[in-house]
Amino acid sequence: MADATTTETAPARAGHAAAEIETVQAGVPDDGETATMSKRRKKKQEEKRRKHKYTAETADRHLLYELSVQDPETEVDLIDQMWLEQRGRRCLSIREDFCGTAVVCGEWVKRSDDRTAIGVDLDPEVLGWGRERMLERIGEEAMRRVTLLEHDVLSVKTQQVDSVLAMNFSYWLLKTRDLLRNYFRSVHASLVDDGLFLLDCYGGSDAFSEMEEPRELDGFTYVWDQHHYNPITGLARNYIHFEFPDGTEMREAFEYTWRLWTLPEIREILEEAGFRKSVVYWEGTDEETEEGNGEWEVSESGEACPGWIAYIVAVK
Ligand SMILES: C[S@@+](CC[C@H](N)C(=O)[O-])C[C@H]1O[C@@H](n2cnc3c(N)ncnc32)[C@H](O)[C@@H]1O
Fold this sequence. Notes:
- The chain is an alpha/beta fold.
- The chain has 7 helices and 12 strands.
- Strands 3-2-1-4-5-12-10-11 form an 8-stranded mixed β-sheet.
- The protein is globular, with a radius of gyration of 22 Å.
- The protein starts with about 35 loop residues before the first helix and ends with a strand.
- About 30% of the residues are buried.
- The structure holds S-adenosylmethionine (SAM).
């Protein structure tokens, strides 16, 4: 991974998922142990197992990353929605740029046997991890419809696809207008005539602050660390840390230095690169919680909330 670093406290990059190397044994009742005692003992062991499901020593940072920030099922549902609304047909082929473990490619081909996916990433280590897992997750037949390419997205040449995806803000690693425009031009050339380029974007006043945001997950805490922001260059340095119930930590498991692009800038550059137009999908608000409700609609008017995520659909 081009921008990922591990520190002394982080575990080896390749490894087994903590969940899969769990060694706590289920109890076997001794002679004379009653069923109730045995049940209680098993419950205690299960509690202990959950509490120490992951530790800095045993956890795998790629798995933790997937569990923390990726939701391939929802992403694929959203692609289907956007295609239906913007094109009135099913999307069959995708290219997932900056694919990392390529978990979206896997979900894509798993859904239907007429779908294909290409994943592109610079980093052979993360691609190898993804390839191995994908085979276990989706099986050989579906895997035959996935191509993983170790390549720079700026220069990769692939067959034309219905959609190119650039998700989780990875294209923000391209820090100048020229680089971003070159990338968008090359995506434009990689799309079929009615192709759609799908990207995400985040913003709001919090996006420009230096702050840490911890989120409790099942068996570990994910920490998004907006470590440094330089308003003169527009560059932000961010880290992902993981913390575990046994008190150990994986500091700087991932590091990203990227440009904090804004929605209008991105849309202007998409147009400069040849896209006919772009539309923005903005999330609705749950009236009770005042949080996002997971429903996305095309809009030209958003709310100035402290933190938001939006999707851009660029139309060839
Ligand atoms: C933030 S991760 C994204 C992983 C995943 N796609 C997601 O949605 O969460 C960024 C990935 O982009 C890759 N990357 C960075 N620059 C790249 C480039 N110029 N070409 C291809 N891959 C690149 C890194 O190796 C890393 O795996």
